[in-house]
């Protein structure tokens, strides 16, 4: 990590600052409220209770009301950070140390917020209570989520020597669309058109895809945008550790894993959810992140005719394959053929553009040779030009789609060009949401069907 003095300072105009007099009044008011709520089953503090006590103590300050609400009903000093949709990550690294944040466009920043150990513990305890879990010396690690879906990881001594830590991965309130990724240059219109065809499969052969990359590279965001290419008539089941996907379809079942309770019981992991999903007649299975033994269940499903998409932590297409076939996933090598494409996504530091996210490679799984999985590179990222280039001579998946539809290789490539042109024609200056994006994509299919009928 860079020295803190080299990092830009994050400042919020909404920060509540108290005068010395207000600080004394605030502490007195807070202690009285805590005493009132000690034996009260309803721990939520109402505004009228605060105002009544303030009138009693002859306190007049809107700042005190805001701070009390933040501390008792929110998350104290970091509440203002949680409300900023431009922040991806909030990082508390110990008591009386600056809170760090990761900004979506400015990268790593340092705040002027300092938290004492009791303040950090209060936030962690509140989160643990929300998910009905405990964090103590016997279980000093907490993985949880906030009501808005943000991921949380907390640790306390003895495993973190400098005091309790808290890392919160935030998600944008509005999901990005395929048009957003094109405008951000994360992908280009040719790749978008290519993926559109292989995902909908022209209604005859949908492809199975793994999106791989490092932490914070944008895998889940890309996965979510690609679900817009799934035909509306399909039944989709999603399986996630934390509900992040927002799929613009009507027929979606969203499932989420459940950690053990305070007694260590009641855990429902991804493998259980995946096995259960196979009893629900899914057309498409989407796994938020493949990590462990659920990989074998997923690949068994893909080998028996189900279609699926998922993400995986890896740094290259070959590493993706290696992770799948080795512990703890242990997918038999012969089953890897059920995956059609591996999409690599990376977070890159660009000298003039700062932190950028790019699809850097798309590789097709084309078979086995001497018990080794063979990959065919379809797209490759040119770092010097910041450009994704189509380098494939052919694609097995495209050829199979063409054959099943009675099309020639030239006709299937022409369809990619048609869809690329359609996407370019629908790129707009004003931002549209995922549901409007889905309408635009559906309209293309409607126009095509109308031409066939005529």
Structural overview:
By secondary structure, the chain is of the alpha/beta class. The longest helix has 20 residues. The mean pLDDT is 88. The strands form 2 sheets. Strands 10-9-11-12-8-13-14-15-16 form a 9-stranded mixed beta sheet, sandwiched between helices. Strands 1-4-3-2-7-6-5 form a 7-stranded mixed beta sheet, with helices on one face. The protein has 2 domains: 166 residues, Beta-Lactamase (2-Layer Sandwich), CATH 3.30.450; 276 residues, P-loop containing nucleotide triphosphate hydrolases (Rossmann fold, 3-Layer(aba) Sandwich). α1 packs across α3 and α7 crosses α13. It is built from 14 helices and 16 strands. It starts with 8 loop residues before the first strand and ends with a helix.
What is shown here, in short?
With 454 residues, the protein is an alpha/beta fold.
Q: What is the H-and-E element order?
A: EHHHHEEEHEEEHHEHEEHEHEHEEEEHHH
Radius of gyration: 25 Å
What would the average pLDDT be, to the nearest integer?
Answer: 88
The number of domains is 2
Please identify, by name, the CATH architecture of the largest domain.
Answer: 3-Layer(aba) Sandwich
From the 3D structure, determine the CATH topology of the largest domain.
Rossmann fold
- Can you tell me the residue ranges where pLDDT is under 50 for at least 5 consecutive residues? none
Beta content: 15-25%
What's the total count of β strands?
16
Our measurement of the CA-to-CA distance between the termini, rounded to an integer number of angstroms, reads 62 Å
The total of helices stands at: 14
């Amino acid at each position: 990590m860079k020295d803190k003095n080299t990092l830009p300072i994050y400042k919020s105009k909404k920060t509540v600052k108290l005068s010395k007099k207000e600080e004394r009044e605030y502490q007195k008011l807070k202690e009285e409220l805590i005493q009132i709520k000690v034996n009260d089953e309803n721990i939520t503090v109402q505004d009228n209770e605060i105002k009544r006590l303030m009138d009693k103590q002859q306190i007049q300050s809107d700042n005190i009301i805001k701070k009390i609400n933040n501390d008792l009903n929110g998350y104290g000093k970091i509440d203002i950070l949680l409300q900023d949709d431009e922040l991806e990550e909030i990082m508390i690294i110990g008591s009386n140390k600056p809170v760090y944040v990761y900004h979506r466009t400015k990268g790593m920043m340092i705040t002027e917020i300092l938290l004492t150990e009791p303040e950090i513990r209060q936030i962690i305890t509140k989160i643990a209570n929300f998910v009905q879990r405990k964090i103590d010396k016997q279980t000093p690690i907490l993985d949880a989520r906030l009501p808005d879906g943000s991921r949380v990881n907390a640790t306390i001594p003895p495993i973190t020597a400098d005091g309790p830590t808290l890392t919160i991965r935030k998600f944008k309130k509005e999901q990005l669309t395929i048009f957003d990724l094109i405008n951000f240059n994360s992908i280009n219109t040719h790749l978008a058109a290519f993926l559109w065809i292989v995902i909908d499969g022209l209604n005859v052969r949908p492809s199975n895809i793994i999106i791989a990359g490092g932490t914070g590279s944008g895998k889940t965001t890309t996965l979510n945008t690609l679900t817009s290419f799934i035909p509306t008539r399909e039944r989709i089941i999603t399986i996630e550790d934390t509900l992040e996907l927002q799929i613009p379809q009507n027929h979606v079942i969203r499932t989420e894993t459940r950690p053990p309770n305070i007694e260590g019981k009641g855990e429902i992991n991804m493998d259980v959810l995946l096995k259960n999903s196979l009893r629900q007649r899914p057309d498409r299975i989407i796994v938020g992140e493949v990590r462990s033994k659920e990989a074998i269940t997923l690949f068994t499903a893909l080998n028996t005719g189900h279609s699926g998409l998922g993400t995986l932590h890896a740094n290259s297409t070959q590493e993706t394959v290696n992770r799948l076939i080795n512990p703890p996933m242990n997918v038999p090598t012969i089953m890897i053929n059920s995956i059609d494409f591996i999409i690599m996504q990376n977070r890159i530091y660009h000298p003039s553009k700062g932190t950028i996210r790019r699809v850097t490679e798309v590789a097709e799984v084309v078979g086995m040779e001497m018990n080794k999985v063979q990959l065919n590179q379809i797209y490759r990222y040119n770092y010097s030009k910041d450009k994704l280039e189509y380098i494939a001579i052919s694609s097995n998946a495209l050829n199979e789609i063409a054959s099943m539809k009675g099309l020639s290789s030239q006709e299937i490539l022409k369809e990619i060009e048609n869809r690329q042109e359609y996407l370019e024609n629908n790129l707009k200056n004003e931002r549209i949401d995922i549901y409007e994006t889905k309408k635009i994509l559906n309209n293309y299919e409607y126009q095509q069907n109308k031409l066939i009928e005529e």
